[in-house]
Specification:
122 residues; mainly alpha; 3 helices; extended
Length: 122
Amino acid sequence: MSDAKLPDPAAMLRDMLGQWEKTSNEAMTQLMATNEFGRAMSQMTTMSLEAKNNFSEIFGKVLTGMNLPSRDELLTVATQIRDVDARLDRIEALLVKLTGASPVAERPAIPRPPRTRKPVKS
């Protein structure tokens, strides 16, 4: 057996990936520093926003055609329900204050059949 060290494949891979990362970062930094890159990103952002707005408009028309509510309509309904719920809470608090009753009315216990393995006789 020889005492010569065998090369570590994991260390070689780490070195290779480190060099690749360094080279890639340098190249991307140079690319992003150019005016052309800034203009291209601006155009892509504008196109993305226009596509999103067009999609929203078309989808809204589809929902209207299918007689379904849009997201904005559902948010409006949810807000109205939340407001009604808050009013009911205030009314309940006033009633409790005026009558002195507990806020939750106690319900009578519902009789339940016994839990056995035997079938219930009619």
